[in-house]
From TrEMBL:
Keyword Membrane found: yes
InterPro entries named in the record: Atg22-like, ATG22/LtaA_families, MFS_dom, MFS_trans_sf
CDD domains (alphabetical): MFS_YxiO_like
UniProt lineage: Bacteria, Bacillati, Bacillota, Bacilli, Bacillales
UniProtKB keywords: Membrane, Transmembrane, Transmembrane helix, Transport
Protein name: Vacuole effluxer Atg22 like protein
PANTHER family noted in UniProt: AUTOPHAGY-RELATED PROTEIN 22
Chief site of localization: membrane
Entry GO terms, CC: plasma membrane
Keyword Metal-binding: no
Segments forming domain Major facilitator superfamily (MFS) profile: 236-420
Length: 420
């Protein structure tokens, strides 16, 4: 097997760096910190979970609105890296700024969190699109899965450091408040993310591009309309995006809301942090395994496996009562979380014209982000109306079933981008 090139390794290491945000800000420390701040301000548990769901929905809606036009502009020569760097800077700086929000201001905390999410996911639009620039099509499954796998491994390091600081503060071994320890974790996340993005900045370049026009903004809007028409013409691409719209909604919602849900079940913050750490460790080899199995059984079949696992997760979640139940749920998620995302990315990269990858990944993003508006809102509204987060999680099952049915109609990529 061919070794990884400098460009492939640099691209992979961005996942190593930015995955610290995924575990510390999206999934673990920030939700726990936010829940404690909101509870201290008198907000009920289910209500604070709903507010977090609404916040995730707002951030993803913003990205859904700007993603396609930014993608259309970024396909011009020299533009992809500029957009990547802008959102990367927004993400890291706002993540660090979470540490300076007053500990009694839960609303400002959610506002800054929205900015961090826009920066993180915005940078990922262009990071994902760079996959076509760093590796040939036959290696995309492996490289994409390797990125997710390395991301899980890399994120455990700042996560361990953050957990250690928080636990030492909880046990009064170090003379700082737990809230201060959480804030330190936000700064650690920003530094880790920044440091391991340096190889990406230095070594990855846009290879597939369109010649610059005098007015790139006007040209971008014009090409955006053309691309939308082309997506409808490319039946395979359009069908995949519809399938992706539904199943990735469920995946993203479970990732974003799992810690808040665990808190509502009465699981302690310490137990949640340990469970999430083990989840990262288990997820790493499974993400890489998905990539290897996709080489043998095809990416589509492995996507089937991942979606079915998530259907089981939704059913099991509705009956959870104990910490052990949450352990079982977390391990189920760990087996497929990285694999389903990695293979979705590489599957789509094989379907689209490489010189227009940013445009098409802009639509990939808008389908994913609009889906991510629906899922958290569904969970949040259900939790509000019923007073139970379990019903919200169970309701996500319909998204996976629809996604599975649509994916069944999408043919395997054959290396030819065909329109109808």
């Amino acid at each position: 097997m061919k070794k990884f090139s400098k460009q492939e390794n640099s691209w992979i290491f961005y996942d190593w760096g930015n995955s610290a945000y995924s575990i510390i800000i999206t999934t673990a420390v920030f939700p726990l910190y936010y829940k404690s701040v909101a509870t201290g301000a008198g907000v009920e548990l289910s209500t604070s979970t709903a507010y977090l769901g609404y916040t995730v929905a707002i951030a993803t809606f913003i990205l859904a609105m700007i993603g396609p036009i930014l993608g259309a502009i970024a396909d011009y020569e020299g533009m992809k890296k500029k957009f990547f760097l802008f959102f990367f800077a927004v993400g890291t700086l706002s993540t660090a700024s979470l540490a300076f929000v007053p500990s009694d201001n839960w609303l400002l905390l959610l506002i800054i969190y929205t900015v961090t999410a826009v920066g993180f996911h915005g940078a990922n639009i262009f990071y994902d699109a760079f996959l076509v620039d760093v590796t040939p099509e036959k290696r995309m499954n492996r490289i994409s899965a390797r990125g997710f796998g390395m991301g899980y491994i890399g994120s455990t390091i700042p996560f361990i450091i953050s957990i250690a600081i928080i636990l030492l503060a909880q046990n009064e071994i170090i003379p700082i408040a737990v809230s201060t320890a959480s804030r330190i974790a936000f700064v650690i996340t920003a530094i880790w993310w920044f440091t391991f993005t340096i190889p990406m900045i230095n070594n990855v370049r846009q290879i597939h591009a369109i010649k610059r026009e005098p007015n790139v903004l006007a040209g971008g809007f014009k090409r955006l309309g053309t691309t939308f028409s082309e997506i409808r013409k490319y039946r395979t691409v359009f069908l995949f995006l519809l399938a992706y719209f539904f199943y990735i909604d469920g995946v993203g919602t479970i990732i974003a809301m799992s810690t808040a849900y665990g808190t509502d079940l009465g699981i302690s913050a310490t137990s949640l942090l340990i469970i999430l750490f083990v989840t990262q460790v288990v997820a790493a080899p499974f993400a890489i395994l998905y990539g290897k199995l996709a080489q043998k059984f095809t990416g589509k079949k492995m996507l089937y496996v991942g979606i079915i696992v998530y259907i089981i997760v939704c059913i099991y979640a509705s009956f959870m009562e104990t910490t052990m139940d949450f352990w079982v749920l977390a391990m189920l998620v760990a087996t497929s979380q990285g694999g389903i995302q990695a293979l979705s990315r590489s599957y789509f990269a094989k379907l689209v014209p490489k010189e227009k990858s940013n445009e098409f990944f802009g639509f990939y993003n808008i389908f994913g982000k609009f889906a991510s508006v629906m899922g958290p809102l569904l969970l949040g509204v259900t939790a509000h109306l019923t007073g139970s987060s379990a019903y919200g999680v169970f309701s996500l099952i319909i998204l996976f079933i629809i996604g599975l049915a649509l994916l069944a109609r999408v043919p395997e990529p054959d290396g030819q981008v065909k329109s109808v």
